[in-house]
Amino acid sequence: MRKIAICDSNQDTLEAMRLLLAAQYGKELQVSTYPSGKELLRAWQRDERKKADIIIIDVKAEEDNGINAARQAQEIFGDVKVIFSTGALEFAEDIFEADPVYLLSKPIKQDRLFEAVDRAIKQIEENEAASVTLISKSFIARVKAEEIGYVESERRVLTVHTKEEDIRVNMKLGDLEERLPEYFVRVHQSYLVNMKQIRVFSAKGVELANGRIIPVSRPRYAKAKDLFLQFLGEKEE
After folding, report:
1. Is 189 found in the same domain as 153?
2. Integer Cα distance of 31 and 2 in angstroms
3. Strands 205-208 and 184-188
4. Claim to verify: residue 121 and residue 7 sit in the same structural domain
5. Contact between residue 179 and residue 192 where contact means Cβ atoms under 8 Å apart
6. Each residue of 115-170: pLDDT tens digit?
7. What's the CA gap between 140 and 202, in Å, rounded?
8. Does residue 98 contact residue 70 with C-beta atoms inside 8 Å?
9. Cis amide prior to 35 (ω within 30 degrees)
10. pLDDT, tens digit, for every residue of 69-81?
11. Is residue 237 part of a domain?
12. Angstrom distance (rounded) from CA 66 to CA 57
């Protein structure tokens, strides 16, 4: 179940949006309401379990600055999707400081509200799909797929090489390959490579952006090359 928080100084607006979202999404979406961004931040800081995945917040509600509140929520609590609402577009010039998903113009139309929330949910799902969970006897690590440069297998132990660290975990390379996005390619029995980080691809090996050379096995070369060309949106002449 996703959580969404609505911030607006107008109680009628809060209640109208709450009812619309409850009718549209039912139990799939837990809705909470706040009269201001300041109240939202205070509530979340008192009890982080109240944190929502999505915020719908008025850009400027009386003395409250919704843009600042949204940005603080993201800085303190991590990846929070923001949907701004406004009745005066001149107050919206700084909204991109919070990387919003959508800008709703007041009075808010039902179809626009649902479109904004659907877009935020889709972005959350895409972010979740782009991460992988690594489980060992002593730890559980959640790693963003884009941060993985390559994976190396040796005697059923995988070393996942990321930008910040190397993570060792007991599992099969094929099992991890199935859980990673399509931009990972198997270039060798023991190596899986993130195509987004390939700088040079040749029969001699794959050179990554950090200069590391990964061997390419002869049996896998043709298929891996074809997948890399598809990834680049190219085709071999």
Report:
1. yes
2. 9
3. unpaired
4. yes
5. no
6. 999 999 998 888 777 788 888 778 888 888 888 999 999 988 999 999 889 999 99
7. 35
8. yes
9. no
10. 998 998 888 889 9
11. no
12. 6
CB burial class (10 A; 0-12, 13-18, 19+) of residue 179? middle
pTM: 0.60
Beta-carbon contacts of 3 under 8 Å, excluding residues fewer than 6 positions away, are: 29, 30, 32, 51, 52, 53, 54
Sign of CA dihedral 105, 35, 16, 32: positive
The token pair at 207 is 């050179």
**237 band by pLDDT with thresholds 50, 70 and 90:** very low
DSSP 48: G
What's the alpha-carbon Rg for the chain, to the nearest Å? 23
Task: Return the number of other C-beta atoms located less than 10 Å from residue 57's C-beta.
Answer: 27
Number of helices (H) and strands (E), helices first, in the chain?
A: 6, 17
Residues in the chain: 237
- Of the listed ranges 35-39, 176-180, 233-237, the least confidently predicted one is 233-237
pLDDT bucket at 92, cuts 50 / 70 / 90: low
Domain count, the chain: 2
Cβ atoms 61, 36 nearer than 8 A: yes
Question: The domain containing residue 202 runs over which residues?
Answer: 132-232
Distance CA 28, CA 130 (A): 22
